[in-house]
């Protein structure tokens, strides 16, 4: 209550409102304009009692232009192809390249210690899913790009590919991607340490 000021003329407390305080609304019923007509939207419309000139069966003539002939083919004849699924990749050679890069990177990182065995199991899990056909071509291409980004010492690009895989193909990569993430973050940490040492 340190910010509480009370004065004789002002009956309200002047203090900074908290994050969950409701907004202060000023309502004065005298400010309504009586000259403006109200919209009675909940009133019923009277049924016409007189016979009138039009009968219920007749409708007034409407001059609408004719509908143009459809030039688009029907939906059932359209074949939608996904360009990302039409990727040509030699799955076995790509797997060997990715596995060799990841294992060599893992073997050269002695700082991982006890995590290395867990990461190696996750790489083997990726290999099993790859050989059994559970990973589509797009995941295979992105894993190849990720491995080459690690090989070229570009951990930020590898991290972006990792995030894209986790968002787009989480059901396919969620069991083994944490091991790859450990390798990427280890590479990022090493590059940051090298940058600090250079300064």
Any descriptors?
199 residues, mainly alpha, elongated
Rg over C-alpha atoms, rounded to the nearest angstrom: 35 Å
Number of helices: 6
Mean pLDDT: 76
Shape: elongated
Class inferred from helices and paired strands: mainly alpha
| Main sheet record | none
Q: Regions with pLDDT < 50 over 5+ consecutive residues?
A: 5-11, 77-84
Note the gap between the termini.
50 Å
Strand content: under 5%
Q: H/E series, N to C? A: HHHHHH
Q: Give the number of DSSP strands.
A: 0
What fraction, in percent, of the residue positions are helical? 40-55%
Give a description of the structure:
- This protein is mostly helical and 199 residues long.
- 45% of the residues lie in helices and 0% in strands.
- It is built from six helices and no strands.
- Helix 2 packs across helix 6.
- The longest helix has 22 residues, at 177-198.
Brief rundown of the structure:
This protein is mainly alpha-helical and 199 residues long. The chain has six helices and no strands.
SSE layout and pairing:
Blueprint: H1 91-107, H2 115-131, H3 137-151, H4 155-168, H5 170-173, H6 177-198
Helix pairs in contact: 1-2, 1-3, 2-6, 3-4, 4-6
């Amino acid at each position: 209550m340190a910010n509480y000021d009370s004065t004789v003329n002002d009956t309200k407390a002047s203090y900074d409102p908290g994050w969950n305080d409701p907004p202060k609304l000023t309502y004065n019923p005298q400010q309504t304009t009586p000259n403006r007509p109200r919209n009675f939207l909940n009133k019923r419309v009277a049924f016409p009692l007189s016979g009138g000139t039009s009968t219920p069966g007749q409708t007034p003539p409407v001059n609408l232009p004719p509908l143009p002939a459809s030039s688009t083919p029907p939906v059932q004849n359209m074949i939608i192809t996904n360009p990302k699924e039409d990727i040509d990749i030699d799955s076995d050679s790509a797997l060997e390249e990715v596995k060799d890069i990841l294992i060599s990177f893992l073997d050269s990182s002695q700082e991982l210690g006890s995590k290395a065995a867990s990461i190696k199991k996750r790489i083997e899990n990726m290999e099993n899913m790859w050989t059994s056909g559970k990973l589509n071509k797009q995941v295979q291409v992105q894993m190849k790009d990720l491995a080459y980004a690690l090989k070229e010492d570009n951990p930020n690009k590898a991290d972006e590919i990792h995030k894209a895989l986790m968002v787009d193909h989480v059901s396919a990569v969620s069991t083994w991607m944490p091991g790859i993430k450990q390798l990427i973050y280890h590479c990022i940490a090493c590059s940051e340490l090298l940058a600090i040492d250079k300064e």
